[in-house]
Specification:
The chain has about 160 residues and is mostly beta strands. It is about 5% helix and about 45% strand.
């Protein structure tokens, strides 16, 4: 019949193959100036600034902490008109989520973020306001074409 295999006294050690690229990498969010897409919109964050008050001397809003103004360009890349609203946008810092202050954006001239209908192929420049603690360093903004979309993050730091 067939010969029996010989066993040796030294064990064979087999190490599992571990590719250096098999570990999941944490994707870094694009930075200010980059264009990201979510649904029917392409977003470009152009700059940020801080203010303690928005509006005029007589009509305006005072920040509880400080207003973070995120300047963005929103382009409709879809096939039909789509509404952009600041209430769908989120800010993240230190593991916390911050909502946009839609009521304060009404007092900011040229904000165009409270509710702006954008036709296909058109782009609008606007500002999304967040009322955040004075010493907070914002990390990312999550931009949405609607409150139901997944969103796209942009690094603010």
């Amino acid at each position: 019949m067939y010969p029996q295999p010989r066993l040796t006294s030294s064990p064979v050690h087999i190490r599992p193959y571990r590719s250096r690229t098999s570990r999941p990498k944490k994707a870094k969010a694009p930075k200010i100036g980059s264009t990201v897409r979510d649904g029917k919109f392409a977003f470009t964050v152009t700059k940020t600034e801080r203010r303690t008050r928005v509006g005029s001397e007589f009509l305006g809003a005072e920040a509880q902490g400080v207003f973070l103004l995120v300047h963005i360009t929103v382009e409709n890349i879809g096939d039909e008109a789509q509404a952009f609203t600041s209430s769908a946008q989120k800010l993240y810092a230190n593991g916390k989520e911050y909502e946009a202050d839609s009521s304060a954006s009404i007092y900011l001239e040229g904000s165009k973020s409270f509710y702006e209908k954008i036709n296909p192929g058109n782009a609008v420049r606007g500002v999304v306001l967040f009322d955040i603690p004075k010493n907070l360093t914002p990390e990312t903004i999550e931009l949405h074409d609607s409150i139901f979309s997944d969103g796209a993050r942009v690094s603010l730091s």
